[in-house]
Amino acid sequence: MKVYEIGDTTNGLAIHKVERPVPKPGHGQVLYKLRATGLNARDLTLIMGRGPQPGPKNRIPLMDNAGEVAEVGPGVTRVKPGDRVVMTHYWQWLDGKWDNAMREQDFAGTMDGFLAEYALVPADPLVKIPDSMSFEDASTLQSAGLTAWNAVVEAGHAKASDTVLTLGTGGVSVFGLQWAKMMGARVIITSSSDAKLERMKALGADMTVNYRTTPNWSQAVLDMTGGRGADIVLNTVGIQEMEQCLTACASGARVMFIGANPVTPDRKASAPTALTRFPNLIMKDLTIKGIVVGSRRMFEDLVKAMTANKIKPVIDRVYNFDQVREALAYMESGEKIGKIVIKVQ
Question: At the topology level of CATH, where does 156-290 sit?
């Protein structure tokens, strides 16, 4: 089978295509035939060697995935060959609360990811997708879609009376907009591009802020809400935006901390804001919650809701399996809206 591996990232981008033998599923495992995968901010960090640690050499990258069950091992009853499926990111998280120990089983992080024609995966975390959902659409869900679902629906408990604020127009933010509108909430979204903001209005955004022309965007959010602020804030950028996120909050608001690193070129990482400078944290009774993707049960709920409400993900571009470098370059440019997908086979 053809796969991509991460090479020596000392000098930046390091990815190359190689061949490996097709693995054989053991007890409780499935041979997964990949049809589509895609890019997330973390993938770019690993492949470009920009993280705090060197990229995992010879690791197959990318955590997004969608495909079919090609073969099942002994003891597998949840799925059968031919089933159309997606795989959760942290495969041990089936339901209940997150446990940090689960991060040791991390597709594309501590183990091979899905930029390959086949993958060997455990059967239990697989989620079936309906025939009406394309593999390209399904491959956008396990990271950006599920993270936004957790932030807005599961942990955020968004309701029609809420105002949801989300930063930027990347995958998590756009899904956050879609889930919030599904729940009937008002949505404010930020971007450095007026053209992107117009696209967000077409998707249902009620209010928009250009953070480049309005650096004090938190005040703009307060002005738009009559001084009240937002009830749920999706901080998809990082700690450098946390103070403005808190300033933009309504009383009792929830800040969902999702992004660790800026993705777009004009949003550079800065030193963490000192906790003593955080306004409103106590007096407005605010909650800051870290969001770690989501469980299999959340994923199943997401797929059901997406199907029932006929929601389609926003896919900016689709590349073929031989265009991985082009896909990475476009991701790095910061021009995308929503998701970038790579068709595998």
Answer: Rossmann fold (3.40.50)
